[in-house]
Amino acid sequence: MLKGLVIGLGILIVLSLGAVVVGVVRTIGDLDRPDDANRIADAGLGGFDTSRIVLPPGGRLIDVVAAGDRVLLRLGSGDGTERIVVLDLASGARLGTIVVAPEAGAGGEAAR
Q1: How far is residue 94 from each of residues 39, 79, 84, 88, 105, measured CA to CA in Å?
Q2: Can you give the pTM of this predicted structure?
Q3: Per-residue pLDDT reduced to its tens digit, 80-94
């Protein structure tokens, strides 16, 4: 009777160890992808082709922020005007642009 109990517990330990190994391998595989990539892959959505954002002469990319299912690009230009371009994370489509321009102050200078 004791021999059967020891064999049964041994088999249970081996099966439990196998489940732990499978769980660790799956977790390591998920760590290779960013959270947004996991969400897109889990939803069954494909990638998208190249999305082109053209900067004006003297323009620069200031910041990139992922916000839910959107990507916000903060673009600056040489004249002090900034634009925030909103992109859809899944398709790469441009959803809109917000222009942030300095207000003209007294004497023709930009107020800050």
Answers
A1: 20, 23, 11, 6, 32
A2: 0.50
A3: 788 999 998 878 888
